[in-house]
Every structure is written in C-alpha cells, then in structure tokens.
Specification:
Phosphorylase Kinase, domain 1; three-stranded antiparallel sheet; alpha+beta; 13 helices; five-stranded antiparallel sheet; Transferase(Phosphotransferase), domain 1
C-alpha cells in the first residue's frame, strides 16, 4: 500500500471527489479513526477505508496519484443493478444476505437442478480487474477444498456483466443466531463444535491457507448439527502471500473476534490469528458474550491489545478449569504463547471433550486437569484432524 500523504484527509477528500467514496462512508471511517486515535491506536485512515471495503487497493493508488496532479475529472461511478442479477444457468430464488462487498442469493443451478448460495460482488468491485482476479482465484482455491466442515464451491464465472460464485447451500442457521436465541451453549456441545471448526482449520492449514475472519456468523450449523465454515473472502494463501480480497491483515468488520496482530495491521499473519478468533468464538458460545466489549470498535480493539482476558467463569460459573486454560491459550495477546497449530489445539479439545463426556455419564463435573490418556466416548467422537 502507498505511504499515507502528510494530510490524510486530503486523500479522503480526493476519494470523495473521484466518487470512489460517499460522504457517509467517509464520515463513518473518520469517526472510527478518531475513536481509535483516542484509544492510542495509530491505524491510518486509509487502512480503515480499505478494510471496511470502501476503497479497493487499486483505487487507493489512483487517489494517491491524483493528489500529485491537478484536480482530475471525476471518474464515473458504477451504476447499481436494478433488481436481481441476470445470470445464465441460474434462477434467483431470494436474498440470503448482503455485505459491504456484495450480495449472497439463494438460487437454483438449472443444469443439475440443485439449490446453491450464489455470491455476486457489487458492481464497483466487479469493475476492478485486480479484485476480479482475486475473486476468481478465491473460487478456484475454495473449489479444491473438500472437507465436511467447509462449505463447498461448485462454480464461478461471469454472466450478464456480473461475476458470481456458486456455493453449497446449507439448510440451517448460523452459530450467531443460535447464540442469540439460547444465550450460551452447554460446554460439551460448544467444545464439540469447536473441535469441528478446528478440524476445518487444520485442513486449510495443511493447504497453506488462513481464513482471517472466523466468527459465529461465518459458521453455519446444519439441521443435523454439523458446523460448516463459510466465507473465504478474506482468506490468504501463505504460499503466495496473496489475499483473496483484502491486501492488509486487519479485518475491521468483526472487532470482537479479531487477533491482536490483525489490529496492528501486521502482514506476516499465520494460522494463529484464526486460532485466536476461534478462541473468541468458543468464549462467546460458553458465556453468551465476547471476551472484549465496548461502546465503539476502537474501544474493543484497545481491550484486545491491553486488557487481561476476563475470566469466563464470572459469566458462567459451571465452566471447567480445563476449558478456561484452553481459552487463555487461544486468546493470548502474544501469538507465540498461543497454540502453534490447529492440531495442538485439537489435542486439548479432544481431551476436554472426553472428560466432559465421562462427567456427563457420571452426572458430575469434569476434573480440573483432564488427562489426554483417557479413552474417548463410544459415540459422538471428536473425529480425526484434517477431515
């Protein structure tokens, strides 16, 4: 990314003049920038704009180039589509969700008569060749993944001026919706779900990929109780050091689950940022609340960086000591103190699951120090790492 100009607001004003950015989007990011500065977090305004999805890296370069010349003629803004996109081979059935980068539709793939989730980027992103290249690379990389705890990608391409990605449609609800309804999840069930997600992370780790946006909203739970990891839109291939959509480490949209190194904008991310996010997700499952909260995103970021991990047993006194140790290691601020790989985390989660299972059979709470030598339960096993 280009170095920030002496006056960061000149960059923002130029982006508005070029119609790359609306005044409302700028006001939102300026507010977050001021809040983060008040917390002592020196995150550049342009980093916030890019990671919010309001500026692409290519357009940011154009803005910096424009600052060195006379006022340029404003670039035409891509027109928003009217109604649903017209995609050959697909019939749109409804909207599943909308985000800063596009819309996900429920659709029928006519050639094989199956219902899919169809991701369609917003026109302003689809007109950026670099974005398109990364979007299609994401689809190809995801299509090579085959794991029961990761949503599959079937197809990708361009039709009627729209790029699209057809993915497995999951009949179920998000983990976020379940937590909102139940408040919290029983420890043994939360650990079982964490094991399945950790197995998915172990699988993508073996293929040199990190997800970078693990959170309850990106975990779908099928009608049969199987968790499936979705949205590889921020995934990064460590072999090529290329990210699919975002060129920086920070994920501004999910402050409750972001790792400390992502907050600081480090580029040398690895699987440990996903393990931190999984730890925060497990914390929410067990307590009904994220580990760090605040009135603004900037306050939450600062607490990730500075505050000690709140004891989850203050919110749920029935939790075992063993699960609090797992949470503490996942959510260590220094990534060197975290689990080094998903397999290391899986070893502790599997031991904890077995202890919880035996305690449930006895009608008692698990011992404080669960032994890894214990024999697993005869049913509902954690499963093998790597899927």
């Amino acid at each position: 990314m280009s170095a920030a100009p002496a006056d960061p607001y000149a960059m923002a004003r130029a982006a508005v003049d070029l119609r790359f950015l609306t005044r409302e989007q700028l006001a939102e990011c300026l507010r977050l920038h001021r809040e983060m500065a008040a917390q002592g977090l020196g995150v550049p305004l342009e980093t916030i704009l890019v990671n919010r999805g309001y500026l692409t890296p290519k357009r940011l370069r154009i803005v910096h180039e424009a600052l060195g010349r006379a006022a340029p003629r404003p670039a035409p803004r891509a027109a928003a589509p009217h109604g649903v996109p017209d995609l050959s081979g697909y019939k749109i059935l409804g909207v599943l969700g909308k985000g800063s980068m596009g819309t996900v539709y429920r659709a029928r793939q006519l050639s094989v008569d199956r219902v899919v989730a169809l991701k369609v980027p917003r026109p302003e992103f689809a007109s950026d060749p670099k974005f398109v290249e990364r979007f299609l690379r994401e689809a190809k990389a995801a299509a090579r993944l085959n794991h029961r705890n990761i949503v599959m990608v079937f197809d990708a391409g361009k039709s009627g001026g729209n790029y699209y990605m057809a993915m497995e449609y999951v009949e179920g609800v998000s983990l976020r919706a379940i937590i909102r309804k139940k408040g919290r999840i029983e420890e043994i069930d939360a650990v079982r779900l964490a094991i399945k997600v950790a197995q998915a992370l172990d699988y993508i780790h073996s293929r040199h990929i990190i997800h970078r946006d693990i959170k309850p909203g990106n975990i779908l739970i099928t009608a049969g109780g199987v968790p499936k990891l979705v949205d590889l839109g921020l995934a990064q291939n460590l072999a090529s050091q290329e990210s699919s959509i975002s060129s920086t480490g920070m994920t501004m949209g999910t402050p409750h689950y972001i790792s400390t190194e992502q907050i600081m904008g480090r580029r040398d991310l690895d699987i440990r940022c996903d393990l931190y996010a999984l730890g925060a997700t497990l914390y929410v499952m067990l307590t009904g609340q994220p580990p760090y909260t605040g009135r603004t995103s900037a306050v939450v970021y600062a607490r990730h960086l500075r505050d000690p991990l709140p004891d989850p047993r203050r919110l749920n006194p029935r939790l075992s000591e063993a699960v609090t140790r797992v949470l503490a290691r996942c959510l260590a601020k220094d990534r060197e103190a975290r689990y080094p790989t998903p397999r290391h985390l899986l070893a502790d989660l599997a031991a904890l699951y077995r202890a919880l299972y035996r305690a449930r059979q006895r009608g008692a709470r698990p011992a404080a120090g669960a032994s890894r030598k214990a024999t697993g339960p005869p049913s509902t096993p954690p499963g093998k790492a790597g899927g």
